[in-house]
């Protein structure tokens, strides 16, 4: 799984985070190191869709939070991935 | 940590559209302050800035057609060199063979150079489309695969032209 928008949504599902915290978190749970440009490309797209939104911050670092629509979208995407995962595993078992 | 990479990354941030910089510039620079600088990150920023500029301006239909058109354009580049290779090598048909050796080489060279320049022009056009589609974030892996053989063929034929020119003593 390497879709940056999905990785960002999955990271924010745990709680609000700013850019660097997302990069670190994503590397930890997915083993993928997003470049700064890729990360902010994903953030811009997600914000455009209304799936994430900025929250108040005291410093230059801008935290983001998952919106209700974002949570629904993430659930749908994860359910689709889960179906693919199960089908793949079942077929692998049948093939051996 | 490379100071030059950090400097390049800051420079590449300026490539983003003004509206993007006004919205995200502050927090993006804050992120760069925390990120260990590397050339890979700088290249990532340059590519993302190009995408941010291209994506909203170029219609999706144009980008899709560019990604499809590019390999065809590059394949067309290989048609003439391939025909020359078949004629000259496989079928044993000599290229234009008249007069003395130098004249033959010159004629052969001029015909092949003409075809070669047309092929190279096709590659440049096709490569340009491929570059635009890539920078805009299209998935064009198939296009790169499709273009690999024609590019190799044209490169081989161009090498042959240069080789024959050198063998004939033409600079």
Describe this structure in words.
The complex is a heterodimer of chains A (96) and B (171). Chain A starts with a helix and ends with a helix. The relative contact order of chain A is 0.16. The longest helix of chain A has 28 residues, at 68-95. Helices cover 66% and strands 6% of the residues of chain A. Chain A has 4 helices and 2 strands. The mean pLDDT of chain A is 94. Chain A is mainly α. Chain A has a two-stranded antiparallel ribbon. Chain B has 171 residues and is mainly α. In chain B, 82% of the residues lie in helices and 0% in strands. In chain B, helix 4 (60-90) packs parallel to helix 6 (141-167). Residues 95-106 of chain B have low confidence and may be disordered. The A-B interface holds A 18-20, 23, 35-41, 43-44, 59-62 and B 9, 20, 23-24, 26-32, 34-35, 40-41, 44-49, 51-52.
Descriptive key words:
A: 96 residues; mainly alpha; elongated; B: 171 residues; 0% strand
Helix/strand layout:
The complex is a heterodimer of chains A (96) and B (171).
Chain A: H1 4-12, H2 19-30, H3 36-49, E1 52-54, E2 64-66, H4 68-95
Antiparallel strand pairs in A: 1-2
Chain B: H1 3-13, H2 18-34, H3 39-57, H4 60-90, H5 101-135, H6 141-167
Poorly predicted spans of chain A:
none
> Which band does the percent of strand residues of chain A land in?
5-15%
Helix content of chain B: over 70%
**Oligomerization category of the chains in this entry:** heterodimer
Distance between the termini of chain A: 24 Å
Task: Note poorly predicted spans of chain B.
Answer: 95-106
Tally of individual helices of chain A: 4
Radius of gyration of chain B: 23 Å
Biggest sheet descriptor of chain B: none
Total E-strand runs of chain A: 2
Q: How are the strands ordered across the major sheet of chain A? A: 1-2
Q: Quick one: how many beta strands of chain B?
A: 0
Discrete helix count of chain B: 6
Return Rg of chain A in Å.
15 Å
Mean pLDDT reading of chain B: 73
Instruction: Give the DSSP E fraction of chain B (strand runs of 2 or more residues).
Output: under 5%
